[in-house]
Automatic annotation (TrEMBL):
Protein name per UniProt: Uncharacterized protein
Organism of derivation: Flavobacterium panici
């Protein structure tokens, strides 16, 4: 999935929502990695 689609959108609201969900996704992965002591190599970020 190319991220060029998101950059073409000029709406600030959609950009903020995308950054917000991306932030939550990264926080979830880091929290799960610390909680389960798994290496972060096992997590695949799309």
């Amino acid at each position: 999935m190319s991220f060029g689609f998101f950059f073409e959108i000029k709406t600030d609201r959609l950009v903020c929502i995308f950054k917000y969900f991306l932030y939550l996704y990264i926080q979830f992965i880091e929290d799960a990695a610390q909680r389960t002591n798994f290496r972060k190599d096992f997590y695949f970020i799309p």
